[in-house]
Design a protein that fits this description.
With 252 residues, the chain is mainly beta. The protein contains two helices and 17 strands. 12% of the residues lie in helices and 53% in strands.
Length: 252
């Protein structure tokens, strides 16, 4: 299945890193301990079409030594290989891309690397096809929004909240109007501009429990999604609604 196209964002990333650094400078008499980093978020999303689960995405976001690693795997609900598709996104704490890799068990892979003022995408088709390269004139701070991986949308929301919003009088105040982000969709080998905007608060049922969530609008040239994050749980992505496809994505 193909969909077209965290504030646990930069501010919290830096806080986690500084806390780790502070802990490392503790009692010098203690035996140094290896830095195993910090898990920022992990879990799974269920993807439902017309109320029926069709895909499960499992993910993990880990930070260590100034690098954030976002790993995800997809498994069809009907069965099949648990790693039928998987992705691995590496970036700095300031959001600069270091490396992105996507692959599927049936063969074929994609790698994206920064080079000067370009992003270089290397496409290896299934079978014995020859690897091709495609350049994109985009900065390394561009967001990766690959097909099917909703954790990439969570990371984009965090970047938006950290850069364009701030707490004020007990609530979150964001800039007027939507923020624009340049994105790359590696599987489609395309770039796109998307708009993200905080809309307001909703009471949403998640696994049978009503929760007060923040709703955001994510829109592009041919799509408009609603995303809900939990301000009481580190702004984690809890739900996505894609009305045009009769699709909902809900955190397990």
């Amino acid at each position: 299945m193909k969909y077209r196209t965290g504030i646990r964002g930069v501010a919290v990333v830096l806080l986690v890193m500084s806390m780790a650094a502070f802990a490392a400078t503790g009692d010098k008499k203690d035996k140094p301990k290896p830095n195993t980093g910090e898990t920022v978020d992990s879990g799974s999303f269920g993807v439902f079409v017309k109320g029926q689960r069709v895909v499960t995405e499992t993910f993990n976001i880990h930070q260590q030594d100034g690098v954030s690693v976002v790993k995800a795997q997809l498994k069809e609900a009907a069965g099949g290989d648990a790693s039928a598709q998987k992705s691995d996104l590496e970036m700095t704490s300031s959001g600069e891309l270091l490396r992105y890799e996507w692959s599927q068990s049936s063969g074929g892979s994609v790698t994206v690397l920064p080079k000067d003022d370009f992003l270089i995408e290397k496409i290896t088709p299934a079978g014995n096809g020859k690897t091709a390269e495609k350049p994109f004139l985009m900065p390394s701070t561009s967001s990766i929004l690959d097909n099917n991986f909703f954790v990439h949308r969570e990371v984009l929301v965090w970047r938006y909240l950290a850069a364009d919003c701030k707490p004020e009088a007990g609530s979150l105040k964001c800039q007027q109007g939507p923020a624009q982000f340049g994105t790359l969709v590696p599987q489609d080998q395309t770039s796109a501009s998307v708009r993200l905007e905080l809309v307001g608060k909703d009471k949403v049922a998640i696994r049978g429990t009503d929760r007060d969530l923040l709703r955001l609008s994510l829109a592009g040239e041919n799509f408009e999604w609603s995303l809900w994050v939990d301000p009481q749980d580190q702004f984690k992505l809890m739900k996505v609604a894609i009305p045009a496809d009769n699709t909902e994505v809900i955190r397990d």
